[in-house]
Every structure is written in C-alpha cells, then in structure tokens.
Design brief:
The protein is of the alpha/beta class. It has a single domain, classed as Dihydrofolate Reductase, subunit A, CATH 3.40.430.10. It contains four helices and ten strands, in the order E-E-H-E-H-E-E-H-E-H-E-E-E-E. The protein starts with a strand and ends in a 7-residue tail after the last strand.
C-alpha cells in the first residue's frame, strides 16, 4: 500500500490557522499538480476535523472514495452523492482494512491524520507546496515522532505566483505491502 501526502503549508510549516481557517491559501487556482496527483490515488483518508472543514466548502469536491477517521463513526453521515465512509482505528488497522478492499494508493490528508500516519511510518511520499506567507501559529503539518524519518528529495518546482513545491519519498523506497 502506498500512502502519500499532498498539501500546502505556510513558510512556517502550518497547514491551517488554529481554527482550521484556510483563508491564507491563494485563490488564483494556479495549477500545481493536484489534478495529476489525484488521478494516481484510489481513496482519500482524512480526519474528522478536515472533513468538517471540507463540508464548509459547499459542494462535495471529491470523485474518489473518502474515508473519514473518527472515534465515533456512528455520529456522522455522508454528504448527498458522496462516496464517503467513517472509520475508527489506528493508522495500521485502517491501512489493513483498505488494503483488503483492494486500494493500492491512499491520499492522507489533515494535520492530525498525517502526523499519526507519519509516526506509524506509513507515509511513503510527501509533496509539500510552500505558500509565501508566515502565519505565526496554527495547525502544524508535522508533530512528534519517536525517531528520525528519512526522506529522499525527488524534485522541487517553483511557480510564477511564488509557490514552491517539493516532493520527497521515504528513504530506501519503502512501500508497505
């Protein structure tokens, strides 16, 4: 199973304001590889907080299956027309269940979810687009881990708007089977 992260951060490493706000993200819609990335995945795994933020966007934005991680899955209902389910469990348990369903490539999204999957050593690829803004505080992309997680640089691209995107893969090319 391949698990990837594709996200934007502020220069100081935050993926959202403390209240989950994303108003600092550029609104110009400059293409930066998101559509190409989404075409490679089988499903999106996100945490409850990210799901609740996505619901504020209005129309459901995902054509791929979405798995929302929550300790209380019975409390939630999928938006109309969405291929969305709610699941509890550790990152390893989630990966095992989704692998049994035939998924091969997951997009892991949301601060706490990304941190938990990284701490469990379940992320193989990271694509981080840095937005030229310093927020000073907010929800960080990275959290505590019990040891170094080494990644190899794959590529860095810069965009006319000032965005800088770097792609990494776990050192040694480890992919969970």
């Amino acid at each position: 199973m391949l698990a990837s992260v594709f996200c934007a951060t502020s220069l100081d490493g935050f993926i959202a304001r403390a209240d989950g706000g994303l108003d600092w993200l550029p609104a110009d819609g400059e293409p930066h590889g998101y559509e190409e990335f989404i075409a490679t995945i089988d499903a999106i795994v996100m945490g409850r907080n990210t799901f609740e933020t996505v619901l504020t966007f209005g129309e459901w934005a995902f054509a791929k299956p979405v798995v929302v991680l929550t300790s209380t899955p019975q409390r939630f209902k999928a938006p109309a027309g969405a291929d969305c389910q709610f699941m509890g469990g550790t990152p390893l348990e989630v990966i095992a269940r989704l692998s049994e369903r035939g998924f091969r490539h997951l997009y892991v999204d949301g601060g706490i979810t990304v941190q938990r999957f990284l701490a469990a050593r379940l992320i193989q690829r990271l694509t981080i687009t840095r937005i030229p803004v310093v927020l000073g505080s907010g929800i960080p992309l990275f959290g505590a881990v019990d040891g170094d997680i080494l990644f190899e640089h794959v590529a860095t691209r810069s965009y006319a708007s000032g965005l800088v995107q770097s792609e990494y893969r776990v050192a040694g090319g480890g992919v969970l089977r």
